Amino acid sequence: MKALITTCLAAALLMFGSLAQADLTIEITRGSDRATPIAVVPFGGADALPEDVARIIHDNLARSGYFDPLERNAMFERPTTRDEVRFGDWRALDVRYLVVGTASQEGDGYRIQYELMDISGERRMLGEVVTAGNGELRGAGHYISDQIFEAITDIRGAFSTRIAYVTARGTGDDIRFVLHVADADGHNSQQILSSDEPILSPAWSPDGRKLAYVSFETERPAIYIQNLNSGERVRATSFEGINGAPAWSPDGRQLAMSLSKDGQPEIYIMDIGARDFQRLTNNSSIDTEPSWSPDGRSLVFTSDRSGGPQLYRYDLASGEAERLTFTGNYNARGRFAPDGESLFLIHGSDRGYQVARQELDSGRLVVLSDSGQVESPSVAPNGTMVIFATQQGSRGVLGAVSADGRSSFRLPSAEGDVREPAWSPFLD
Amino acid sequence: MQLKPYAKCLALALSLAVLAGCASRGGSEDGMAGSADGSRDGAAGTDASRGGQVSGDRMGDGAGQQDDARIPEVRTIYFAYDSDTIQSEFEPVLTSHARYLRNNANASVVLQGHTDERGTREYNMALSERRAGAVERYLNVQGVSPSQIDVVAYGEERPAVRGQNEEAYAQNRRVVFAY
């Protein structure tokens, strides 16, 4: 028995900001043809609870692209424990894995018992009792989703993570910008900052406790670092010109950024504690959108030194920058996959701007998204999904695509344009 | 004014009225090759479609007929796709602002640079700074003191109009004179 969920969630819970009604919803736009069939049976006793935990798990697994959960109306029986499972019946439905459980109120919180079954092996793979505090039922669902995902795929689940994003409503001089943080499934959105001047480029600190972002609230750009638990924040830079594209070093001690204080945008590294700056690039072209490699030894950034935007890799030991992208005329805003072996980036072509993945060894570039106007890709900490901003009609929405490009979904918002998603690191 | 290589290319293309030929070298500005030809039309589109930013006769508000004590009415100029080159049709606008600033040494202006929404946000931030910088150099050459000019790059963050079409893009590729 584990009771870790309470502490884990408390740490992730933001202690300020209002619980907004503007949660994002999810529409799966493309299912993977290689998804594993699984069934998540409604949990016994769950009808009396405020959240349908089995539905949360079902939706998480479906969204991952790794699983194709059986619809409830196709289930002939609804076992709640292993003893009630008739393996042959589920085999007949071509289901490979089965999740059953019960959920009930216990004191001020909840008690959830679940089991994961391998249908062909007729064996139990997981069994656990999870306790969750008041208001933490969704978190419990994400925790259980993480356990199931890892037990079957051997990949750590990222369902308990969060996303930061920016919404904008209005046009011209009358735009309201709001920085939000929400659960990775779009629920529990909370306002972090609201301004009638632009907010952009949110970036999570590696410990998941802080966000760096660019805000124009003083009518010019400045980079701020905000503690999500306390709400406390500092202005990191407010030089003349552009203060943009903050990116945390893997150890959380440094912030790479683009500053144009010396004439044109150059890449700098700021030591956050010492507040001193090291300039990495020095030329007459645009250098922006830095992102650290997971090993902290290099940064990828966008530069138009060759005429148009392409990605370059700056090696911190040698001080040399090497061009990485050669496919097409527009490759920008690179982000390393967590394993450091590939980059996610925006690739522009006559088909628009799309999320692409480039393997660093081979240089091979593969376009992942299928909509024409995509920005701001951000990789899940387990590397399985990329979230991005795109258009649905004339509205900005968030979309996501699996790292193999096989499945995708969208998170439309009830209000305004949604943009600039940033996927948090693991939060425990 | 210093012309970067692509700006030279663009100026040539404009003079030949074959903008698409230049842009096909690849999208280094806020759009991609292939959608360039429409932008010229859009940039020269009707004032009515530009909302409140532009009032009066844009072309006519040049040197010669302005009251030097008044801020020129036309305070937005537009740019071609993939370009920070000041188009000749907007030179009278810049000249009128240069004259106003020269004659009113206490006045100062913030040049707000903008791009359309295509391409990445931080890269567009840099492109919009280039556009505002081109205007700043033009004013400096015309004798305006650098201390009177400030530049803020907004990138694609503050579109004048919404829409995913060339007309909207053309109205958003702009530098605004904010006094």
UniProtKB/TrEMBL annotation, chain A:
The keyword Signal applies. Keywords: Cell cycle, Cell division, Periplasm, Signal. The lineage of its organism: Bacteria, Pseudomonadati, Pseudomonadota, Gammaproteobacteria, Oceanospirillales. It comes from the Bacteria. Residues 1-22 form the signal peptide. It comes from Halomonas korlensis. Residues 24-124 form the TolB N-terminal domain. It is found in: Periplasm. The keyword Transmembrane does not apply. Part of the Tol-Pal system, which plays a role in outer membrane invagination during cell division and is important for maintaining outer membrane integrity. Belongs to the TolB family. This is Tol-Pal system protein TolB. InterPro entries: 6-blade_b-propeller_TolB-like, Tol-Pal_TolB, TolB_N, WD40. Its main location: periplasm. One of its GO terms (biological process) is protein import. GO terms for cellular component: periplasmic space. The Tol-Pal system is composed of five core proteins: the inner membrane proteins TolA, TolQ and TolR, the periplasmic protein TolB and the outer membrane protein Pal. They form a network linking the inner and outer membranes and the peptidoglycan layer.
UniProtKB/TrEMBL annotation, chain B:
CDD domains: OmpA_C-like. InterPro entries: Bact_OuterMem_StrucFunc, OMP_bac, OmpA-like, OmpA-like_sf, Pal, Pal_lipo_C. GO terms for cellular component: cell outer membrane. It holds the Pfam family OmpA. SUPFAM superfamilies: OmpA-like. Residues 1-20 form the signal peptide. Residues 66-179 form the OmpA-like domain. GO terms for biological process: cell division. It is a lipid-anchor. It comes from the Bacteria. Keywords: Cell cycle, Cell division, Cell outer membrane, Lipoprotein, Membrane, Palmitate, Signal. Residues 28-67 are annotated as: Disordered. Its main location: membrane. It is found in: Cell outer membrane. Residues 30-49 have a biased composition (Low complexity). The Tol-Pal system is composed of five core proteins: the inner membrane proteins TolA, TolQ and TolR, the periplasmic protein TolB and the outer membrane protein Pal. They form a network linking the inner and outer membranes and the peptidoglycan layer. Part of the Tol-Pal system, which plays a role in outer membrane invagination during cell division and is important for maintaining outer membrane integrity. NCBIfam families: Pal_lipo. Belongs to the Pal lipoprotein family. This is Peptidoglycan-associated lipoprotein.
